[in-house]
């Protein structure tokens, strides 16, 4: 297995009950690993930690086999992410934002305009190329953020609730982009509240509850919702009685 991301014993506590309280997971090359959990379970915090956006109290994170704190700049350029809300420079148009993202990925400046145009078309944003990011609708801003995150085929993509705000066409575009990326050998860690969608795109599904990974769901399994709630309830009961 070629490892794209490994999180071991991660702790980032916000008080006794909140944050990440001891979580381990990995993402292999070519794999889509989904993280599901109730609001406040710790998914975003874990993803932020994996990207070095929050410092761990304990535990270890490796990207492409290298500890996060020693990851070379060139390796960071091969990591795409969308966390919380899509990042875009509000006063720069959609095409310009993608050109900047391409430069950050190390694409030569002579090639960025053509790449930005192609990516706009892939995401159904062609007519919004000259529109400032601040003027885009919520869903189109999400498309732009995803286009920037996945542009130029990163080795690892970390996507926090990527379907947020997307219409059904956008959801399909995302599904195809994620599967294409994994097919090309990337690892993808994705959080979601949509079990049906997760079952469509994920190779593995981990369930997070109250800061910990408490189990897994089989993406091909029946009645994922029932299994999910059973896992969460069982964990809640165990923690209350222990
Ligand atoms: N900077 C912070 N300071 C204090 N508490 C925080 C901070 N960041 C997160 N938390 C708390 O940690 C817990 C986990 O939050 P997190 O955003 O990781 O959950 P989540 O699983 O992504 O939730 P959601 O599905 O609602 O996005 C929550 O109780 C949240 O209030």
From TrEMBL:
Keyword Ion transport listed: no
Chain ranges passing through the membrane: none
Matches recorded under SMART domains: AAA (SM00382)
Origin: domain of life: Bacteria
Keyword annotations: ATP-binding, Nucleotide-binding, Transport
Stretches assigned to the ABC transporter domain: 5-235
Gene3D superfamilies in the record: P-loop containing nucleotide triphosphate hydrolases
Coiled-coil boundaries: none
MF terms (GO), sorted A to Z: ATP binding; ATP hydrolysis activity
Similarity field: Belongs to the ABC transporter superfamily.
PANTHER family documented for this protein: ABC TRANSPORTER, ATP-BINDING PROTEIN (PTHR43335)
Protein name, as recorded: ATP-binding cassette domain-containing protein
């Amino acid at each position: 297995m070629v490892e794209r991301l490994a999180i071991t014993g991660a702790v980032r506590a916000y008080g006794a009950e909140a944050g990440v309280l001891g979580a381990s997971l990995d993402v292999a090359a070519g794999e889509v690993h989904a993280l599901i959990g109730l609001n406040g379970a710790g998914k975003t915090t874990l993803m932020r930690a994996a990207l070095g956006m929050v410092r761990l109290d304990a535990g270890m994170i490796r990207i492409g086999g290298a500890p996060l704190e020693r990851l070379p700049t060139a390796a960071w350029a091969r990591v795409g992410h969308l966390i919380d809300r899509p990042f875009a420079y509000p006063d720069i148009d959609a095409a310009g934002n993608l050109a900047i993202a391409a430069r950050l990925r190390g694409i030569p400046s002579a090639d960025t305009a053509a790449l930005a145009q192609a990516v706009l078309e892939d995401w159904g944003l062609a007519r919004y190329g000259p529109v400032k990011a601040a003027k885009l609708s919520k869903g189109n801003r999400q498309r732009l953020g995803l286009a920037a995150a996945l542009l130029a085929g990163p080795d690892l993509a970390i996507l926090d609730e990527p379907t947020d705000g997307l219409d059904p066409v956008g959801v399909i575009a995302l599904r195809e982009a994620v599967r294409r990326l994994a097919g090309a050998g990337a690892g993808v860690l994705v959080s979601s509240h949509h079990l049906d969608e997760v079952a469509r795109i994920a190779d593995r599904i981990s369930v997070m509850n109250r800061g910990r990974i408490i189990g897994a769901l089989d993406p091909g399994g029946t009645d994922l919702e029932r299994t999910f709630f059973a896992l969460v309830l069982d964990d809640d009961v165990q923690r209350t009685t222990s």
